[in-house]
Design brief:
The complex is a heterodimer of chains A (111) and B (111). Chain A is mainly β and 111 residues long. In chain A, 0% of the residues lie in helices and 58% in strands. In chain A, a hairpin with a 5-residue loop joins β4 and β5. Chain A is globular and about 40 Å long. Chain B is globular and about 40 Å long. Chain B starts with a strand and ends with a strand. Classes of the chains: A mainly beta (111), B mainly beta (111). The interface between A and B is medium-sized, with 24 and 25 residues.
Chain lengths: 111, 111
């Protein structure tokens, strides 16, 4: 059974700081790892998707990495802004199966 | 708009009433998935379809829940005799083995 874990559950940083969100998973035969953003009461916004053949993906101030052998992914946010405050979810896809989500890290960026 | 759409976006109902949600997947996707997200948790898998066939159901899907996908196009998720514990975000996704695309979700509040 594939499991996805995110630690910490909550994180508070001052504006401008660079930060790293962590995600770990139990099955290295992962097809892809996706990072989502979720604002309170809203749906999921896809941020970055890393295919199993890739090591990282970048979009603007965001960089996500994937290390299948260690079962880890990180989401790096550069120069954090108050608008980055949200819950960040990572999710793994193992072939023609359900996506398995972590429980999320709630980020607060303090002005 | 060629993404996954869900209707309604919000639903408030009284305990004991029946509710039905609709999901329209991306047209070329033959796989469709339903997830449920309760407060403070990551989304959890409920069920999925390949074309019109329902291939897997989670134990979270009690006998009050039923999902259909007639003709392998849109899907409906019905909850009978709603309970307060059914209050959640219901997410639909479509896709294949390498990526799933999520809709905006239907937020259900049972009073």
């Amino acid at each position: 059974k594939q499991e996805v874990t995110q630690i910490p559950a909550a994180l508070s940083v001052p504006e401008g700081e660079n930060l790293v969100l962590n995600c770990s998973f139990t099955d290295s035969a992962i097809y892809n790892l996706q990072w989502f953003r979720q604002d309170p009461g809203k749906g999921l916004t896809s941020l970055l998707l890393i295919q199993s053949s890739q090591r990282e993906q970048t979009s603007g101030r965001l960089n996500a990495s994937l290390d299948k052998s260690s079962g880890r992914s990180t989401l790096y946010i550069a120069a954090s802004q108050p608008g980055d405050s949200a819950t960040y979810l990572c999710a793994g896809l193992w072939g023609y199966q359900k996506v398995t989500f972590g429980t999320g890290t709630k980020l607060q960026v303090i002005p | 708009d060629t993404g996954v759409s869900q209707d309604p976006r919000h639903k408030i109902t009284k305990r004991g009433q029946n509710v039905t949600f609709r999901c329209d997947p991306i047209s070329e996707h033959n796989r469709l998935y339903w997830y449920r997200q309760t407060l403070g948790q990551g989304p959890e898998f409920l069920t999925y379809f390949q074309n019109e066939a329902q291939l897997e159901k989670s134990r979270l899907l009690s006998d009050r829940f039923s999902a259909e996908r007639p003709k392998g196009s849109f899907s409906t998720l019905e909850i009978q005799r709603t309970e307060q514990g059914d209050s959640a975000m219901y997410l639909c996704a479509s896709g294949g083995p390498y990526e799933q695309y999520f809709g905006p979700g239907t937020r259900l509040t049972v009073t």
